[in-house]
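re the bet — no i am not wrong, look at it urself. input seq straight from the record:
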Amino acid sequence: MQLTVRDAAQLLEVSEKTIYRWARKGEVPFTRVNDQYRFHRVELLEWATVRKIPVSPEIFREEEEGPFPSVVEALEAGGIFYRLEGDDIPSVLRGVVGHLRLPEEVDREYLYQVLLAREQLGSTGVGDGVAIPHVRNPIVLHVARPTATLCFLEKPIDFKALDGKPVHILFTLVSPTVKGHLHLLSRIAFCLRDRTLRALLTEPAGRDVLLQGFWEVEARLPGPKGESAP
């Protein structure tokens, strides 16, 4: 669903005048439809996350085809891994791909090349030492449900993030559908705005503590019909 200027202003909790100013300056991602500004929900959330701009939970109140897993369910399926080694982006991404829980028929080398190519287009770092490796056209593989794999790096790596901070936390998403990918990407981006959860990731905390932290944050989000989730 494409958002109007009014929609974007409500979700970012700013005035429409501010949205117009950001768009004219090219500071916010948008497209033009019949000479009108239009915004993509997930792109807007990613943009706000990088710049630490508060967003309304209403950004998640939309009808979706599902059911989709919660962040906790996706992490339980994808796994949480500590002390991942690597000296640069290519070696770190190769290590991540090696840890992904994928069907045997998936070509891991191809997947690695796709992730690497996406990173060369622009950093997937979202700030505060976190990156969410993904591609412009989401990773869609023959898996049963969307999964998220969380990796903590042995040493921070320069991902050319906007805030200049090296990355030591990676979330990698794999999904059978584009909508499933966007569902997880948007919710992880929202969860990362929570200070308490950020602190748990920075420590980093143990697996069970992290999963509880994500559950508590995501539970505050509205479901597709106004119901709390998960």
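see?? The domain at 2-55 is CATH 1.10.1660.10 (Multidrug-efflux Transporter Regulator; Chain: A; Domain 2). told u. also Residues 61 and 225 are 7 Å apart (CA to CA). so pay up
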